[in-house]
Design a protein that fits this description.
The structure is a homodimer. Chain A is of the alpha/beta class. The first copy, chain A, contains 8 helices and 5 strands. Chain A starts with 6 loop residues before the first strand and ends in an 8-residue tail after the last helix.
Chain lengths: 230, 230
């Protein structure tokens, strides 16, 4: 590695959580290499927002990688024929794995981040998963993160040579309101973040999908207005 | 799942090993869903061979998925500016991790296979990795396979609901000569398999890359001519 800052790969979707994870990586002193995956999701406009967020935050670079995951369909996020749930109650949202679950999505994302990290000689990977407000996704749990970290050492040339990869999920134990507070503290460009599963072409959020509802509740609990809605 | 055979996802590169793994899956009674990843490798003609092998063997279906891994470069397989090692000795080939190592490649492949398996309600994933003749790759070791199997249960909705994924690496402990013997026994269309890292456009192997040399040694030890060279 060329001298200076330690490098980190940061998975950046363009949503509020990953933008905050990026800000935490930068504040922690890492040279951030941001990675956005375009996987055929309905909300591809997130990638444009991700590029903007990466630039505004001061990421060292931002890459967008395309992989069409529709072959492993079964998610309302990638299958346009499935209905996205709208206007669900809190208990409905947190009650079961939602239809927006994309099979093995975070495993795929982390494996690509790991590949890039190894190529960059980075040893740290940031992911903005969160297990508190939205515990339905299996691949957002601490035990999943720990298991991938274990795998990463076995899966790589760097690991074979003694390196250890640190999988950093700084939002894992935070509520959405706490994440928003941290984002504000770190100067995240919240107005550019897009959490909605079903925005219009201009990036205006629908206001009624699970992700919009959770975000709205977070801002309510944080006692502030959502700058993206102004 | 619709009644009848159990489904399995089989990673199929078009090489000798994965063709044999496919034949083992079929002989074991699985309905085989073959998956080929086109990741920007030099030898993309393997994908055509994979389609042919899948059809000849009787796979239920074959999908090819593209993902450009050149962003995580550092491998002579995906970076045309790097030199592929040629005419290396046995000790050179087995002595260290070769420059053809693609960062986290099998982790990426298995994560995509896992996604498809979950979507198909398959619980078995076949991969033709082999730790005996070519132990240089970290992600061909038994401990890597075991670690991914552990991860798969944590990473998925199916796993959360109690399912376990079986990661099957039936060639793990076999020599190349033993794999060839098994391939012959199972009627694998060896003439269509392509192991070469650097074939010409028609799919003719170079004869001097590590993969060609290992294959040639395997056929020598198995006491037969390579049908792909006839």
């Amino acid at each position: 590695m060329s001298g200076g800052k330690r490098r980190a790969v940061v998975l950046l979707s363009g949503g509020l959580d990953s933008a905050t994870a990026l800000a935490i990586a930068l504040r922690s002193g890492f040279e951030a290499h941001a990675l956005t995956l375009l996987y055929g999701q309905r909300h591809a406009i997130e990638a444009e927002r991700a590029a903007k967020i990466a630039a505004m935050a001061g990421a060292h670079e931002h890459r967008t990688v395309r992989i069409d995951l529709s072959f492993a369909s079964g998610s309302a996020l990638t299958d346009a024929t499935m209905e996205l749930p709208k206007n669900r109650s809190d208990s409905q949202i947190s009650g079961a794995i939602p239809p927006t679950y994309v099979p093995a999505r975070n495993t795929i994302f982390l494996s690509l981040a790991l590949a890039w990290a190894e190529a960059l000689e980075a040893r740290d990977i940031f992911i903005g998963v969160n297990a508190v407000d939205y515990s339905g996704y299996p691949d957002c749990r601490p035990e999943f993160i720990a298991s991938f970290e274990h795998l990463a050492a076995l899966a790589t040339k760097a690991g074979l040579q003694g390196a250890r990869f640190n999988l950093r999920a700084p939002l894992l134990g935070m509520t959405k309101a706490e994440i928003i507070g941290k984002a504000v503290e770190l100067g995240v460009d919240l107005a550019s973040t897009l959490s909605c599963y079903d925005p219009d072409r201009t990036g205006r959020p629908c206001g009624s999908c699970d992700s919009c509802l959770l975000r709205a509740r977070g801002f309510r609990e944080a006692g502030m207005a959502d700058p993206a809605l102004e």
